[in-house]
Amino acid sequence: MRNHKNAGIVLESRNLTKRFGGLVAVGNMDLKVHRGEISSLIGPNGAGKTTFFNVVTGIYRPDAGDIRFNGAPIDGKKPHQIVELGIARTFQNIRLFPNMTCLENVMAGQHCRGAAGVWASIARTAGQRTEEKRIAAIAAQRLEQVGLGRLKDELAKNIPYGNQRMLEIGRALATNPRLLVLDEPSSGLNDRESEDLIVFLKNLIKEDLTILIIEHDMNVVMGISDWVTVMDEGRKIAEGTPETVYNDQKVIEAYLGRDDEDEDSGTERA
Ligand SMILES: Nc1ncnc2c1ncn2[C@@H]1O[C@H](COP(=O)(O)OP(=O)(O)OP(=O)(O)O)[C@@H](O)[C@H]1O
């Protein structure tokens, strides 16, 4: 049985389906994310994980099924509305503004949340200057939190890759989310950076935050997750504690492919 840290369900999808033409990228996905936990979504390439995230964060409308955030339906809402409701995300391929400073990148995250929008803020009308200062102060705090305070005036394109990943997380945090959705945050990080990321994320959930993460690195998955859901070919094929899932035959087969390879090599999947 699952031993929940907290009984509340932050995010729930029921029968969620997204098709691309004849391809069922996500099919009848039921998923529950519990408050204050780190839930991982794993599965082989093309399993439908990012598509699931894209539906949750409003990039795609689902073809069927529904999604609830804190009990209220969110399917069909626009990405900025979903941010306003308290879901922030990062992307598999880093999406920063390369020619803006680190501080400006994090500030942009908050502007996306505000009613005025980023373009109005860039225009810097008199009435917005105070707001601008407030936003800069919050952004500076978030930069410190992700360990990049000293780089605030550097252009995003000039900082190391691992720092860019943390900058994206800082930008997401600046929207003050209740649920942080991270698409392969350890991708491209070295072992040391991945370990630091695990510690960082574990500390984050102590702040009453919930995390849903797509992750390929099994060391990260095992080290971080309270609960793991496994997708393959658009479907949920398993869920449970990291240990349960890691030893699940269906999961081992999904990672190895469905040919009759050496069965002992199941422990090598990652
Ligand atoms: N915009 C799109 N148009 C058509 N097909 C798409 C689109 N996005 C994803 N797909 C297809 O949907 C399926 C699921 O893709 P998705 O990117 O969600 O998988 P994934 O589990 O995130 O994979 P990976 O781990 O490689 O990122 C794949 O077959 C993919 O080719």
TrEMBL record:
GO terms for biological process: D-alanine transmembrane transport; L-alanine transport; L-isoleucine import across plasma membrane; L-valine import across plasma membrane. Residues 11-258 form the ABC transporter domain. GO terms for molecular function: ATP binding; ATP hydrolysis activity; L-isoleucine transmembrane transporter activity; L-phenylalanine transmembrane transporter activity; L-valine transmembrane transporter activity. It comes from the Bacteria. Keywords: ATP-binding, Nucleotide-binding, Transport. One of its GO terms (cellular component) is plasma membrane. Transmembrane segments: none annotated. SMART domains: AAA. It holds the Pfam family ABC_tran. This is ABC transporter ATP-binding protein. It comes from Desulfosarcina alkanivorans.
